[in-house]
Amino acid sequence: MKRQLKKWKLVVAATSMIMTIGLLIACQEKTAYYTVNDFESVPKTDVHLHIDTQNPIYMEFASKHNFRVVSPNVDAGTSIDDQFSVSETTKKEWPDQYAFLGTFSVESFNDSNFADNTIDRIEQCLIAGASGIKIWKNIGMELKDTKGQFVMIDNPIFDPIFNYLEVNKIPVMGHLGEPLDCWLPLEEMINTENRRYYENHPQYHMYMHPESPSYDDQINARDNRLRNNPDLLFTGAHIASLEWSVDEVAKRLDEFPNMNIDLSARMTHIQYQSVDDYEKVKNFFIKYQDRILYGTDITINANQANPNEVLQRLQESWKSHWIYLVTDSTQHIKSMQQNVKGLKLPKEVIDKIYNNNADRFFESI
């Protein structure tokens, strides 16, 4: 009887120990990762959200969801002066939650004083509170010199401008080139959103314009510029137009230590790769956690017919991306028409990608 009682006590003790270990593991699991329910409470930053209106509902919406915003001005659409005016005002009204990137026009590129005037414009942006400068894809895809030749970002005429940006440690966000889909027929594009965009903007569908610089021309010109200005603080917008391969992105991050990337408008391409090689994509995020910034590239302007539709779209994007990066849940991604398992990145990685890496845009230059 005593022997059986002793055996029973040992079983109870062992069971208790197993339960305790299981509880500890569960607690560690809970503290090491965020959940879907943490979305509202965790501080976040969208580093690529174009807010081109002074309507306060958009910043109020971002603040409600614990988002800071970096709004890049761009040499397209609404005039850069109107964008600048909105940004300057919004920065004053939301100094801790809103930052903006100024820009410059290339309309006078062929004028002899283009570089000097551009530097003056950059200084004007900084005085107004800009956190850096945004450069757009019209350089390399639209801009031409007096001989009718396409002008790439490594053109020597830009040297004084980039030297100024580099020496003064002014952050630059570059949307240079386009996704590889841009050089494919519509039916071969992996992202239905890309397909819709190029169908509506055929002037940027390079498959239809074989006379224009190639995809490799765009990437090589950008890389040449970074080699010429190795200390430039550079963020490659839209996964640096290398969205189709985390291996290619890694090569650039290794070669250019001052280069970062944002994820805006290209998350589908990351998800597409993770379906094919889950561990490679997850390891990429972990290895380069200090070099990746979250963004959406949604544009909001004063002409929105239904602001609530825009806010709903923004919220859906934010929530879907959070589920993918934070959890290992499977969700259906419409733009790729597939089910995708989330990466479930650790808290410390999420905090960097979603917020801490963006701090540079909220620091004084």
Protein architecture, described:
The protein has 365 residues and is α/β, with parallel strands linked by helices. It has 2 domains: 1-32; 36-362, Alpha-Beta Barrel (TIM Barrel). It has 14 helices and 12 strands. Helix 4 (114-127) packs parallel to helix 6 (159-167) and helix 11 (267-276) packs across helix 12. It is globular and about 60 Å long.
Q: Give the structural class.
A: alpha/beta
CATH-defined superfamily of the largest domain: Metal-dependent hydrolases
Main β-sheet description = 5 strands, parallel
| Uncertain spans | 19-27
> Would you count the extended β strands for me?
12
Keywords:
2 domains, five-stranded parallel sheet, 365 residues, alpha/beta, TIM Barrel, 12 strands, 14 helices, 45% helix, three-stranded parallel sheet
TL;DR of this structure?
The protein has helices at 2-32, 57-64, 80-93, 114-127, 138-141, 159-167, 192-200, 215-228, 237-240, 246-255, 267-276, 278-287, 307-326, 347-354; strands at 44-46, 50-52, 67-72, 98-101, 133-135, 172-174, 234-236, 259-262, 292-293, 299-301, 330-333, 338-341.
Secondary structure layout:
Elements: H1 2-32, E1 44-46, E2 50-52, H2 57-64, E3 67-72, H3 80-93, E4 98-101, H4 114-127, E5 133-135, H5 138-141, H6 159-167, E6 172-174, H7 192-200, H8 215-228, E7 234-236, H9 237-240, H10 246-255, E8 259-262, H11 267-276, H12 278-287, E9 292-293, E10 299-301, H13 307-326, E11 330-333, E12 338-341, H14 347-354
